[in-house]
Design goal:
CATH class of the largest domain: Alpha Beta
Oligomer: single chain
Helix content: 10-25%
Low-confidence stretches: 1-38, 41-45
Largest sheet: 7 strands, mixed
Number of helices: 9
Mean pLDDT: 91
CATH architecture of the largest domain: 4-Layer Sandwich
Strand content: 25-35%
CATH topology of the largest domain: Purple Acid Phosphatase, chain A, domain 2
Number of domains: 3
Shape: globular
């Protein structure tokens, strides 16, 4: 940015200040959600000393980054050169805020493409024209290790943006050729263009050990532009980014039986392992068991997926951590005695579609906590479509980042939104995989089975249309289970496509075909209950004998089919328009649901909970004897 004369000065600056003091807000004066002039922080709270600044390593989460910014025309007029980009600049009179900054037509409202500011910027001058530019500063401290490698950032902006680190320009976008002839100037190269969103890297040596400042200037295209926006959702060193990747993607998987736990995560290539020790001995890792991990799906950015198998587990509590380039945080899991029965959670489609949106997984976690109460489930059974977009790894990352899945193992099945990409297999690790039914969703996409407390669980990739292959798997899995563990007391099937649902897909040709193909084998091998998702409404069937419902019948008269609706609230369907004779209970009230299944030798109780505005209630309870 070139040095120039003050844009606003002298008597005009005085008049501007006076007009704001009188409450003039130009185009925002009609009220609504327009932003009134903001109060400045008290002097003694304004400018923290260097020793009180946050460390860069503590600012990985966006809400941890508190920016100082100014949208005051008088203060903006005082910026005449680039001294404001230096660490020693006095920004004590500036405001503070975190998250996304912006305005549309002078108000705090959503812009295009789902960009929504958290902090409303003062958009207009008293004459009704746009304020030309806005300035942001983030002060923090860095350690010597932060200077190693690259510093990664991502910025969203409208209209033009320039980013500085300790006074040196490190990124710009939409800036006119030749820059700006004065600090507070209009101009962008993408006139009336869509919001920009760019990721970039900066040499870590530009960081200083000790105090640093990240500075951002944001420019309007012209005096009539309808909106303004700035957000920096990502700011991390390579070490921070790898630590976040490791922590977010770390997920336990249900093993072949209770004595086995599967662990998967993503981290830096070059070798990984899991350290395991009894919880009573943590965090002393000196005597820990070290299990080497297998590296798969190596990426061009130097990362890969790691998988490790923990075998021979006895009942008790364990502490564990994973290591690749560095160790993860400490986590724990428990192996419970199963002679008195056990419980597990079962969820329908999470179908995450926005990795920046935390609410869906907060809904999921709330349902899980309410369903289990003070107990810990043996595992979570997820019925497919964990992600809405098979090509977006950040959606899978958001799903497995829930703390629940670092304590409780997951058994997931492939959904139709995940069947053409290997992302499913990059995130999940599953036991007893049938290679014959593996398809485009990767090496973890085949049918698989596991055994818990007398129950055989048969999990199918119903997106795979190989009916004969599924039949062969089901029959062989029953034989293998009998050989290893004896006759199962219960047999449960889990798949994505619901064969007897009450939603929009109830009469799809593909569903009717699968109904004919699967039910005969289910009857043959003695399945007791089937859990499925896909149709985004809740339904419980009457007992089904073959394909015929036994209306009013007891559970032993056939197989009971459950269709679980959205577990996050991201998508719902309407109920099927005609009466379906096989439906005993259904619900299309568009409430997120999750089921808890309590298993004993004599009973299997399926209790389905729903959430509505933060309140929880039982939607359905069914006991199979």
């Amino acid at each position: 940015m070139k040095t120039g004369k003050k844009l606003l000065c002298g008597g005009l600056a005085f008049l501007l200040m006076a007009s704001w003091m009188l409450g003039c807000s130009a185009k925002g004066e009609s009220g609504g959600d327009a932003l009134p002039p903001q109060e400045e922080p008290a002097a003694e709270e304004r400018l923290p000393a260097a020793e009180d600044l946050p460390r860069l390593a503590e600012m990985l989460e966006e809400d941890q980054r508190v920016w100082r910014y100014t949208d005051d025309p008088v203060r903006l007029a005082e910026i005449t050169d680039d001294s404001w980009t230096q660490a020693d600049f006095d920004d004590s009179g500036w405001l503070e805020g975190a998250g996304a900054f912006g305005a549309k037509d002078g108000r705090l409202r959503e812009l295009d493409d789902d960009y929504e500011p958290d902090v409303c910027l003062r958009q207009y001058l008293p004459d009704g024209n746009n304020i030309p530019a806005f300035y942001f500063r983030l002060r923090f401290t860095a350690e010597e290790e932060d200077r190693q490698g690259k510093l990664s950032m991502r910025v969203a902006y409208d209209d033009a943006v320039i980013v500085y680190l300790n006074g040196e320009q490190v990124f710009s976008a939409n800036v006119p050729e030749g820059g700006y002839d004065r600090p507070n100037a209009y101009g962008s190269t993408d006139v009336r263009g869509a919001l920009g969103d760019a990721a970039f890297q900066v040499d870590g040596t530009l960081l200083r050990k000790g105090e640093n400042v990240l500075a951002v200037e944001l420019h309007q295209d012209d005096e009539t532009s309808s909106d303004i926006f700035f957000r920096m959702p990502e700011l991390a060193t390579e070490a921070m980014a790898l630590a976040a990747l490791r922590e977010d993607t770390l997920c336990l998987g249900a093993g072949a039986d209770a004595s086995q736990m599967l662990v998967t995560w993503q981290g830096q290539s070059g070798g990984g392992s899991v350290e395991l020790t009894p919880w009573s001995q943590s965090p002393d890792w000196a005597g820990a068991t070290v299990v080497q991990a297998q590296a798969v799906y190596e990426q061009s950015d130097g990362t890969c997926t790691y998988r490790a198998v923990l075998d021979g587990l006895e009942p008790g509590e364990y502490a564990y951590r994973v290591t690749d380039s560095a160790p993860s945080a400490l986590h724990r899991f428990a192996v419970e005695e199963e002679q008195d029965g056990f419980s597990f959670l079962c969820n329908g489609d999470a179908q995450l579609g926005d990795d920046d949106d935390r609410e869906p997984m907060e809904t999921y976690e709330g349902l899980a906590a309410w369903a289990m109460g003070d107990q810990t489930p043996a595992f979570v059974l997820s019925l497919g479509d964990q992600s809405d977009d098979e090509d977006e790894p950040d959606l899978f990352r958001r799903f497995v980042s829930t703390p629940l899945l670092k304590t409780v193992p997951l058994a997931a099945v492939v959904g139709n939104h995940e069947d053409e990409s290997e992302q499913f297999s990059r995130f999940f690790f599953l036991p007893n995989m049938d290679e014959a039914t593996v398809d485009a969703a990767g090496d973890m996409s085949g049918d698989y089975w596991f055994f818990r407390g007398g129950v055989l669980f048969l999990c199918m990739n119903s997106s795979n249309s190989d009916a004969d292959g599924h039949g062969q798997f089901l029959r062989q899995a029953v034989e293998d289970c009998r050989e290893r563990y004896g006759e199962p007391r219960w047999t449960v099937a889990a798949l994505h496509y619901s064969l007897f649902s009450a939603g929009d897909h109830a009469a799809d040709d593909s569903i009717l075909r699968r109904r004919e193909e699967y039910t005969e084998v289910f009857d043959e091998i003695g399945v007791d209950v089937v859990f499925a998702g896909h149709d985004h409404t809740f339904a419980r069937s009457w007992p089904i004998d073959g394909t015929e419902p036994v209306i009013g019948g007891a559970p032993e008269d056939g197989i009971v089919y459950f269709t679980l609706t959205s577990s996050t609230g991201t998508k719902f369907y309407e109920l099927y328009g005609e009466e379906l004779d096989y439906v005993a209970v259904c619900d299309g009230s568009e409430r997120p649901c999750m089921s808890r299944v309590d298993v004993t030798d004599e009973t299997m109780t399926v209790t389905t909970y729903c959430e509505d505005g933060g309140q929880y209630e039982v939607l359905d309870e069914y006991v199979i004897r």
